[in-house]
Amino acid sequence: MDTLSSMRVFATVAELGSFAGAARRHEMSPAMVSKHIAHLEARLNAALLTRTTRKVALTDSGARYLRQCQEVLRLVAEAEDELGHQRARPSGTLRVTAPVELGNRHVAPLVAPLLRAHPELSIQFEFTNRVVDLTEEGVDVAVRVAARLDSTLAGRQVASSRLLPVASPDYLARHGQPVQPQDLAAHQALVFTMGDWSRWQHRRGPDTGSVVTTPRLRSSSSDALRLAALDGAGVSLLPSFLVGDDLRAGTLLPLLTAWDFGRLGIHLLYPQRRYRPARLRVFVDALLARFGDDPQHDPFWSGENL
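The chain above was modelled as a monomer; its predicted structure follows.
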């Protein structure tokens, strides 16, 4: 029995948690799926899966072996792609990770056009604010928001997102408009719990400074801060990719626009591999069409309503 085929079947069983599901995907009988798994277990002298009447789960050995299988199968797919067998037809599963807020607003909209254009392509999203280990977790590409690029990965910064102090018109009507950054110290601040986000750094030309705000709300969720700002609870320092639509609609207003409160880089990162399959290339092309490829450009809000 072909070990590479057995590895493909094993990876599908692990993905679906089902022998029957793997059988349908590979157009074979459940008995043949069992034979492929038995072939690997005999070859490795280790149990890879535990089976009950309700589910299939990986053993510890199976979890370790799955990571190696996924890497081998990716390398095979990339080698075939490099030879041109799949260059014109992106296929297989593309695994993408991105922060929750950026992913939902700006990455998820890419899916439907890509799936329509490439019938053999499937996409798996992992939208999370934790830092995903791309190699360990078998992820093809990360869209990451960070001040700097992770040098252990291949990739580049493709755009920027301005950090903007924002508040609702209702809040400003009740509490007044700040004229200079130090005025923010007297306002009700909505801040991140991570890091020193209650101290807001600012720059205007060669002059730099910071203001210590008084938090009324702390949250690890930028969406929670945005909603509180929309409801008139205070002033929050938020990225343009999160509040660009609100600024265009006028439901949030940018404050102190003569000052620069910092920027976050939008990065595309990949595991360190020589070849990149066609499914990755078409996704990157689609994302660059949406974000652009200028590290200094903010595609989310240009200040058109100032």
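The chain has a mean pLDDT of 89.
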